[in-house]
Amino acid sequence: MNESDISMKNRSELTEEAFEDILLECEKRLNEDFTFSETVLEYEKRVKEITSAQEAFVLLLNSKEKNFHIVSKQIDIPISAESSVEGILFESFYSKKPYIATHARRNFLYRKNIDNFIDAKINDILVVPIFDHSDTKNIIAIVWIATTDANREPFTQKDIDYINRFSIAIHAKITANDQNSGQIAVEDDKDITKESLIENDTSIINILIVDNSVIILRFLEAVLHDYSINIITAESGIEAIERFKHKKIDLIFMDEIMAGMSGHEAIQVIRQIEKEKEYDRVPIFGLTSDTSRETKEKLLESGANLVLYKPIDVDHIIQTIQKFATLSKLPL
After folding, report:
1. Radius of gyration of the chain (CA)
2. How far apart are CA 100 and CA 113, in angstroms?
3. Whole-angstrom distance, CA of residue 94 vs CA of residue 104
4. CA nearest 55: which of 151, 119, 110, 105?
5. Quick one: pLDDT at residue 23?
6. Of the candidates 98, 180, 302, 303, which lies 20 to 30 Å from 189 by C-alpha distance?
């Protein structure tokens, strides 16, 4: 099967053999003496062959400049407090998970200035993070693909699997490019230094925010952004417990309704750890959209100090923190 035959094939018709052919050909070409920009263009071209996408772009994370750089478009998408609140791209970035938006313009997260930087009539969007090889799985780039033709097949898990496997072909190029520009080495050192300072500085307040909604996490981060605190996030009760075990936590916002382990169950475990380790009791605020007495009693009986209700009221959040005097030294 030659290249033109492959490029004409529909995603559902693409066999494993055809995919392997494209992968091998791409790896072969990327081993040639390509510039980094040429490598990205080649990769984007091949991604459109293995998926139903009509548009494909690699978005490089530049943490030093706080933006995503779209190599083939030579434009930047800033990462700011404002842009981090909503958007399909940032949902994937903050959750570190792929995100599929069918009929993207009707998706509640869709933000044209962020999710449609090509200013086209987008139908479906798929964004897939590419990670480094560290234990923390830091994002080094995001693959953004889209269909503009409503008759194209919607993206599925198969597309995600293809892109994850295909990204091996460009991973080394991205890493080498970042190392040449000094970004990875500098940023890793900076992150380690910052974390060690936070862990050992008793004047810095560490707040753990636990919620399975990335939007809620980003909202609370934005609310508390201007204060002298360090925000730590978790998307599940199990992850919250691990954060609590390994970091100095001064206050916790705990969502009640989460998959796997509920908020009140996670609070029970945290209170047990405090008892066994003879830790001081950390103020814990339960968060829930369920206003029933039963849910409130569950949270309070598990060890929550207070129950707050969604949708979250910003003034109420600040007043509650002040009431517990945890952040009394801050200029609220």
Report:
1. 23
2. 18
3. 19
4. 119
5. 75
6. 98
**132 Cβ neighbours under 8 A, 6+ residues apart:** 138, 139, 140, 175, 184
Listing DSSP states for 235-298 in one string gives SSHHHHHHHHHHS--SEEEEES--SSS-HHHHHHHHHHHHHHHTPPPPPEEEEES---HHHHHH
Strands across the sheet containing 306-309: 229-234, 205-210, 251-255, 284-288, 306-309
Sheet with 55-62: strands ordered across: 75-78, 67-70, 55-62, 139-147, 124-131, 99-101
Q: Identify each DSSP E strand in the chain by its residue range.
A: 55-62, 67-70, 75-78, 99-101, 124-131, 139-147, 205-210, 229-234, 251-255, 284-288, 306-309
- Going by the DSSP 8-state scheme, the letter that residue 313 receives in this structure is P
Reply yes or no on whether the pLDDT at 250 is more than 50: yes
Q: Structure tokens of 267?
A: 């609070």
How far, in Å, are 224, 231, 263 from residue 205 at the CA level?
Answer: 11, 8, 22
Return the closest-CA partner of residue 174 out of 74, 55, 30. 30
Q: What is the pLDDT of residues 127-181, one digit of tens each?
A: 999 988 777 788 889 999 999 988 888 898 888 988 888 887 777 777 766 545 5
Q: Are 114 and 77 in contact (CB under 8 A)?
A: yes
Residues 168, 264: Cα–Cα separation, whole Å: 41
Token duo for residue 274: 């405090």
Dist. CA 50–CA 163, nearest whole Å: 8
Match 């707040």 to its residue by tokens.
207
| Phi (first) and psi of residue 173, to 5 degrees | -65, -40
Cα separation of 204 and 211, whole Å?
22
* SS3 state of residue 109: coil
Give 287-294's long-range contacts (Cβ < 8 A, gap of 24+). 287/211, 287/216, 287/253, 287/254, 287/255, 287/256, 287/263, 287/312, 288/255, 288/256, 288/257, 288/263, 289/257, 290/256, 290/257
Phi, psi (deg, nearest 5) at residue 165: -70, -40
Q: How many CA atoms lie within 13 A of 290 on its CB side?
A: 15
